[in-house]
Amino acid sequence: MQTLKLWLMRHGETTVNAGLWSADPLHCSLTQRGKEQIRQAISEITEQPDLIITSSAPRSQESAAFISEAWPTVHTCVWPIEEFIYLSPAKLNDLSVAGRKERINAYWEQSDPFYQDGEGAESFANFFRRIEAFHEALATQKGFIIAAGHGQFFKAYLLCLIHGFEPSAIAMQRFRKEETAAPIKNGEIIQIQFAICK
Question: What is the pLDDT along the chain (198 residues), one digit of tens a residue?
């Protein structure tokens, strides 16, 4: 049996987090405040990690780069741990703030895990498949791993560790409630330790 120490670090504040609407939310960048948040976060890292995981999103990779600066010999790999984009950005682009909120509320009230809104969006069921794949891939690792990624992904992962990886209307409602009430903050680190059976 081996031990895996996993640190989940949410990226720093982005232009979207700061209130600037983007039709391409996957590719927004860190603000100056976001960079400072990550510098503060990585001051908690006092030992060399064995692996750095990041998503394909620039904000995740920018955040991971600060860890790589501190530990330049550590390998960084890209895993599909991107944020959950559940509404098509193209459909939201021409709506007012109130119109976007209405679409968001309607989506969560519907709570259909297999609904796919259109281009650039994914179903909740597919989101859960990515989370389960992340968990399964971690089982092949060992040592100290840092994943620099996204608050919604990490929040859903933590809930899946407790309640399982099966997508359902109940899982959607639970996730929405927890994500709204207690989101993972920009630059926040969640520490987990697993016993991995090989």
Answer: 678 999 999 998 887 775 655 556 667 788 899 899 999 999 999 999 999 999 999 989 999 999 999 999 999 999 999 999 999 988 888 888 899 899 999 999 999 999 999 999 999 999 999 999 999 999 999 899 999 999 999 999 999 999 999 999 999 999 999 999 999 999 999 999 987 665
* Residue reference for tokens 């600060």: 66
Q: What angle is formed at CA 134 by the lines to CA 131 and CA 136, rounded to 5 degrees?
A: 110
Q: Which residues, 6 or more positions from 96, have their beta carbon under 8 angstroms from its beta carbon?
A: none
Q: 53, 81 in Cβ contact below 8 A?
A: yes
User: How many residues does the structure list for the chain?
Assistant: 198
Q: Which residues of 54-92 are buried (b: 16+ CB within 10 A; e: fewer)?
A: bbebebbbbbbbbbbeebeebebeebebbbbebbebeeb
Sheet of strand 51-54: strand arrangement: 76-78, 51-54, 143-149, 2-10, 189-196
H or E stretch at 25: none
184 vs 151: CA distance, rounded Å: 5
